[in-house]
Design a protein that fits this description.
Strand content: 5-15%
Distance between the termini: 78 Å
Helix content: 55-70%
Shape: elongated
Largest sheet: 3 strands, mixed
Oligomer: single chain
Structural class: mainly alpha
Number of helices: 5
Radius of gyration: 32 Å
Order of helices and strands: HEHHHEEH
């Protein structure tokens, strides 16, 4: 009789373990985030705003280039009849203008990148939030970007860093372990 009870108890335990492990299966999904982004509402107006901003910068740069080219042509046409002081002044002016052109081009590139991020960040965040919400609502543990293989969503899980550090005998504290001391001097 005891054996029978133990066998039934063991069978129930195994059955319940299989039932719980079946319920905790990992559910994976994927999204072509680039395609999703290209279909986002509001993207057309972002492109219009960005292109207008880009055109103003390009027009200013083109005007600066025309000024530079005109001054070079003037210098080359008149260099033979210039005195040393005028020639040196014109050369310094051309060098300064070339440096300003280079600086403008560098700054314009950075400005355009910042503007693009400023305009597209809300749309990207909206798409990312939608992916996260769909994943949560449909029980997905992980969602990958199908074109790049990047992880777009992951269920909150345990941080294994402390366990891996222990396994590797690493004793260096991680940045979040280092809480700065408060200086309370009055």
């Amino acid at each position: 009789m005891k054996r029978f009870i133990i066998i039934i108890f063991t069978a129930l335990l195994v059955f319940s373990f299989q039932e719980s492990s079946a319920q905790s299966k990992i559910k994976l999904g994927h999204v072509d985030f680039g395609k999703l982004y290209s279909m986002m509402p509001g993207l057309d107006s972002v492109r219009t705003i960005f292109n207008a901003y880009k055109k103003t910068i390009q027009d200013q740069f083109a005007a600066m280039q025309v000024e530079y080219e005109n001054k070079i042509n003037d210098y080359q046409a008149n260099v033979e009849g210039m005195s040393n002081i005028i020639r040196q002044t014109k050369e310094a002016e051309l060098q300064d203008l070339a440096a300003r052109l280079d600086a403008f081009e560098t700054q314009a590139t950075e400005d355009l990148q910042r503007k693009e991020i400023e305009l597209t960040s809300p749309i990207i965040e909206q798409a990312r939030t939608a992916v996260e919400n769909v994943a949560k609502e449909n029980g997905y543990n992980y969602v990958f970007n199908s074109t790049e293989g990047l992880l777009l969503y992951a269920e909150p899980a345990d941080d294994l860093l402390p366990l891996v550090k222990k396994k590797l005998n690493i004793t260096v504290p991680t940045p979040q372990d280092q809480v700065p001391a408060l200086d309370i001097e009055k």
